[in-house]
Amino acid sequence: MFYWSNRSFAVIIVGIVLALAALLGTPRLLSLNARLGPPELKTSYFAFTTLAAQLAFFVGPVVGLSIYQYQTALLFYVLIGCALLYGLCAIKSQTESTRL
């Protein structure tokens, strides 16, 4: 059957956090592309955004699971660092958009 351990629970929690981040971040990124991109380059902007997302979906689990296999704590430090970096970028973009 299914073996449940603390590591299994940790992987599920990380998956939920990443899914929520993608759910909240993707519409904002696409609307930013639509606002900032010149009309003749909007399709290229959307294509590169989609390419980056697909590359992240492919490379992320491979890198994450290899880190998880050898250094479990490092995976959570990297996840927390990415979340903080995203939060700082979101705060910076909010302050810049209110200034305009």
From TrEMBL:
InterPro entries: MFS_trans_sf. It comes from the Bacteria. The keyword Phosphoprotein does not apply. Keywords: Membrane, Transmembrane, Transmembrane helix. The chain crosses the membrane at residues 6-24, 45-68, 74-91. This is MFS transporter. It comes from Brochothrix campestris FSL F6-1037.
